[in-house]
Write a structure and sequence with these properties.
The protein is of the alpha/beta class. The protein has helices spanning 22-34, 54-64, 79-84, 86-106, 144-164, 190-204, 223-236, 255-265, 290-295, 304-317, and strands at 3-4, 10-17, 39-43, 68-71, 111-115, 168-173, 175-177, 208-211, 217-218, 220-222, 243-245, 253-254, 272-275. The chain contains ten helices and 13 strands.
């Protein structure tokens, strides 16, 4: 629904759900210096209401009257939580997504961009994976509750477009890292977990120990790059079909390379040890970004070295308040 300012120019009110998290805060950093004069950005946190509740969600939409929504909020957790609470991961995410989508339809929101994940792809697949393969087989049994709830976003984006003419789409990022991440050693993702571990090893004068052999390969995207591309999707990409936001396949790196980059950024000069008694997990999960490159052939991603240095510097500066 188009709004206008006092001079009659179209005005955009962009609502970010999950605005206090890794990607939400990256979008905030990006838009602080890259927003357009007619754009107002609103970053929601759980303090603004419970998105599992239809009543709370209705009130949020009534209050802010958004013209655009970037939907990042979700119930997320590690492997153990996903295995133990499949019902809750399915139900809570389905409730959140339904409340957001229905409100976007009712309030005639111009554009909705929702975030999916590469972990919802079929368990048995060929690599590289691309957007067309999302529904080709069941997800890994360990996170099927979460995965099916997320896959339904893609199904419903197309259904809302067909039935109501809504402009809803979704993005599929690869492994995200950057400032404002969860740096928990137990529950965090690879890079933030390694940064915290290396910080402690430096402080305690102990070896920097990495679980596994360090050989698995991954594609990592710096959160500020993802923020910039997500805003681009909101403004410029108008198709219900999802788009993978990932670095190129050639930028895939080993966990060993990541660990050594973390040690260098932290100026850690102790021993770096790979504990091969710990499991490695999947060797590779390569994603194809040909679709993104067809629109943005010249986009320059932040290098792994620069991104890790910025993340390490942020963690050291914000150690007391960082999530860990």
């Amino acid at each position: 629904m188009t709004k206008h300012d006092a001079e009659g120019n179209p005005r955009s009110v962009i609502l970010i759900t999950g605005g206090s998290g890794l990607v939400g805060q990256a979008i905030k950093s990006y838009t602080d210096s890259n927003s357009k004069p007619n754009e107002t950005w609103i970053f929601l946190s759980s303090k603004d209401g419970d998105l599992r509740s239809r009543g709370d969600t209705d009130k949020i939409f009534e209050k802010f009257k958004p013209t655009h929504v970037i939907h990042l909020a979700a119930k997320v957790g590690g492997l153990f939580a996903n295995m133990k609470q499949k019902v809750e991961f399915y139900r809570e995410n389905t409730l959140i997504n339904d409340n957001i989508m229905e409100n976007c339809r009712i309030h005639k929101v111009t554009k909705l961009v929702s975030m999916l994940s590469t972990c919802i792809f079929p368990d048995k697949t060929t690599y590289p994976i691309d957007e067309t393969m999302l529904h080709d087989g069941p997800p890994h049994p360990s996170n099927e509750g979460y995965a099916y709830a997320k896959r339904l976003i893609d199904t419903m984006n197309r259904a809302y477009a067909e039935e109501y003419g809504c402009n809803f789409t979704s993005i599929i990022p690869t492994n995200i890292y950057g400032p404002h991440d969860n740096f928990s050693i137990e529950n965090g993702h690879v890079i933030p977990g390694l940064i915290h571990k290396c910080y402690k090893a430096k402080k305690d004068g102990t070896p920097f120990t990495i679980w596994g052999s360090g050989t698995p390969l991954r594609q990592f995207i710096y959160s500020l790059d993802l923020a910039e591309l997500t805003v681009w999707v909101m403004r410029e990409y108008h198709s219900p079909d999802p788009i993978t936001l990932s670095v190129d396949e050639s930028a895939e790196v080993s966990i060993k390379d990541v660990a050594l980059a973390v040690a260098k950024a932290m100026k850690f000069d102790g021993d770096v040890v790979f504990d091969t008694t710990k499991a490695d997990g999947q060797f590779k999960k390569t994603a194809c970004n040909k679709k993104l490159r067809s629109y943005r052939p010249d986009y320059k991603f932040t290098s792994m070295e620069d991104g890790i240095q910025k993340s390490v510097d942020w963690f050291v500066e914000n150690y007391e308040t960082a999530r860990k």
